[in-house]
Write a structure and sequence with these properties.
239 residues, alpha/beta, Purple Acid Phosphatase, chain A, domain 2
Length: 239
């Protein structure tokens, strides 16, 4: 048996070709796996679980529920774009909502799963916003607004974020090596799988004499991609 990992799909009505590619992946590739882990940013943005009547949200949740019902377990982790994704959506997907980070036994190998944005510690402005966006009081205040008000506010926040990126270096927006080493040390030197940076690669870290493998997942802006892991190891695959 094998396990699949994806992240950073950023599904949106404005990118129907990627949505169709994702739905095809769910129909044709994922059913052969024992489990599918989605490590954050499934959607371009998420304004709350009460937005389930949206056609895109409905088609995605329906496809994931069908996958889960076919026998492949489905796991969801929040990302920075869909931090408000909650138990109602997970329930509709027949999926399990995960904490970030999470240590699992993956085919006999201790493996730490994360979206990855918490590791970008050199981006001080983003880390400040990350704390704000995850504050329960701030989330309750946002969710108390109407759906349309939330969508408008979220679109404004996305535009601000994209403008802010233009003023930052690539290095600042990548994970900080020191943060990676601390996380690996704290969790017993496991394998690490994460997304967020949109820089798919396999890295090897030596931490306190321990060799640790780190896989960065592919984003789905241009084409899809996933990580396939079994008892023999992991391999990145483009769709």
């Amino acid at each position: 048996m094998h396990t699949l990992f994806i992240s950073d799909l950023h599904l949106a009505a404005e990118r129907p070709q990627i949505t169709e590619q994702f739905l095809r992946f769910i129909r044709e590739t994922a059913p052969a796996a024992s489990a599918l882990y989605i490590l954050g940013d499934l959607f371009e943005y998420w304004v709350g679980d009460d937005d389930l009547k949206d056609p895109l949200n409905g088609s995605v949740s329906g496809a994931l529920a069908a996958l889960a019902d076919s026998g492949s377990k489905v796991y969801l982790m929040r990302g920075n774009r869909d931090v408000l994704l909650g138990s109602d959506f997970a329930s509709r997907c027949h999926a399990t909502l995960l904490e970030d980070p999470l240590l699992v036994n993956l085919h006999g190998i201790p493996t730490l799963l994360s979206h990855g944005d918490a590791l970008c510690t050199d981006d001080v402005d983003y880390q400040r916003f990350r704390l704000y966006a995850r504050d329960p009081a701030n989330q309750r205040k946002f969710l108390a607004q109407s759906l349309e008000a939330r969508r408008e506010q979220m679109r404004g926040m996305r535009a601000q974020s994209e403008a802010s990126k233009q003023q930052k270096t690539e290095a600042i927006m990548d994970v900080a090596p020191a943060a990676v080493e601390i996380l690996l040390r704290q969790n017993g030197y496991p394998r690490l799988i994460h997304g967020h940076t949109h820089r798919p690669a396999r890295h090897l870290h030596t931490v306190d004499g321990h060799a640790c493998e780190r896989w960065v997942l592919n984003d789905w802006y241009e084409t899809g991609g996933y990580l396939r892991c079994d008892a023999a190891g992991c391999a990145a695959v483009l769709t």
